[in-house]
Amino acid sequence: MNTLAAPSLPPAPPGVPCPDPASGAAPRGPGGHRPHLRLVTPPPSRASVWRRRSGALVILLVLIVLAIAGIGRVGASADLEDRVAGHVIIEPGQTLWDVAVSTAPDGVDPRAQLTAIKDLNQLNASDVDAWTVVLLPAR
């Protein structure tokens, strides 16, 4: 007669209670709690790793472009400050010609001053709305 013997199991580590086979209860871990199942996820696929890396690269490039644009603006404002001697607010009834005549330095033709004012402020006409701030060119 053949008899089947129960496989021998290694002893439980110290501090871990052994289940009572007669009661049918599941073993409990330290502190009397039942062990929790952990969800094991597979590693990300090559395609998802590629998408993540390319997305990070795009974000990095956008940040670099924005930083360069910000540095360029600082340089542009410094360049503008070198070209500006002050400003005038156009009053009602005042024209750019009036501003050019009153602000032209000694020895400078008001026509040259008017052209410089138009170029600096990127104006096409000599009529400007009242209360407009007009920058004056440095000479």
Characteristics:
single chain, 139 residues, mainly alpha, two-stranded antiparallel sheet, 3 helices, rod-shaped
Q: Tell the overall outline.
A: rod-shaped
Strand coverage percent: 5-15%
The computed structural class is mainly alpha
The quaternary state of the protein chains shown equals single chain
Strand order of the largest sheet: 1-2
- Helix count, per DSSP? 3
Largest sheet: 2 strands, antiparallel
- Helix-strand pattern: HEHHE
Percent helix: 40-55%
Distance between the termini: 119 Å
Residue windows where pLDDT falls under 50 for at least 5 positions: none
Please provide a written account of the structure.
By secondary structure, the protein is mainly alpha-helical. It has a domain at 46-137. Helices cover 42% and strands 8% of the residues. The chain has 3 helices and 2 strands, in the order αβααβ. It has helices at residues 46-83, 96-103, 110-121; strands spanning 84-89, 133-137. A two-stranded antiparallel sheet has the order 1-2. Helix 2 (96-103) packs across helix 3. The protein is rod-shaped, with a radius of gyration of 41 Å. The N and C termini lie far apart (119 Å). The mean pLDDT is 79.
Short description, anyone?
With 139 residues, this protein is mainly α. The chain has helices at residues 46-83, 96-103, 110-121, and strands at residues 84-89, 133-137. The model has no long low-confidence stretch (mean pLDDT 79).
